[in-house]
UniProtKB/TrEMBL annotation:
UniProt entry keywords in alphabetical sequence: Calcium, Disulfide bond, Glycoprotein, Metal-binding, Signal
Organism, as annotated: Strigamia maritima (European centipede)
Complexes and interactors: Homopentamer. Pentaxin (or pentraxin) have a discoid arrangement of 5 non-covalently bound subunits.
Cofactor note: Binds 2 calcium ions per subunit.
Signal sequence segment: 1-19
Keyword Metal-binding assigned: yes
Family, per entry: Belongs to the pentraxin family.
A Gene Ontology term for the protein's cellular component: extracellular region
Name by which UniProt lists this protein: Pentraxin family member
Amino acid sequence: MKSFTIVVFIFCTFNVVYSSKKTYQITFPADDALPYAKLLGTIDRHLTDFTLCHWSRINSNNFKGATFSYAVPTNDNGILVMLDQQNQTISSVQFYQNNNKTEVITIGVEKSKWIHTCIVWSSVEGSWNLYINGKIQQTGKGLSPDATVLPNGVLILGQDQDLIEQHFDKTQAHKGQMSEVNLWDHPLTPNDINKVYNCEYKEEGNVISWNLVTWSLYNGARVSLVTLPCGED
Ligand SMILES: [Ca+2]
């Protein structure tokens, strides 16, 4: 009876403490070679709603960098996410949807720390929510209402496309790491997103699934293993 009690105690402790995830990351070196990763495949459907989440880490001072750039022939900023890092913190997240832009001022996310970002967008009223580390940071409306993200474009991590897979700008390059980029074709609830942040959400993205897709790596971008600090902000 005594040993049974001990076993239960250890099991419960393990569940409480555990908050990490082993996966792969892509590193984008901080040099002028324009490193990037291109999805082998594409967004295969029209999106009138989506949820985009990713982990990222910035290793360089004072710059603005593109983490996620999805371009179609008629629109190089179909979906674009840029993180602006100044004064040792992530100072803003810029989110473009069909060339329309919103900018969210963020607070106190330190340089070199992993941050988890989720953006939920809907064509209904152009409503959007931005979550940082599982918590809602800001919400708004009027961002590309009634728009559609078109399929069959080119998705690049680490650089901002101003033409399909071209016209990168080294001052808009992500310098650091990225991991667990997932895209869903529907809005996730706040509770779902908290689970994603805690690495407890069972479903990966149904449009882009980090552990099912393949990336082509260019100009020094490289893959390695990482343990993500799920739920530790
Ligand atoms: Ca662009």
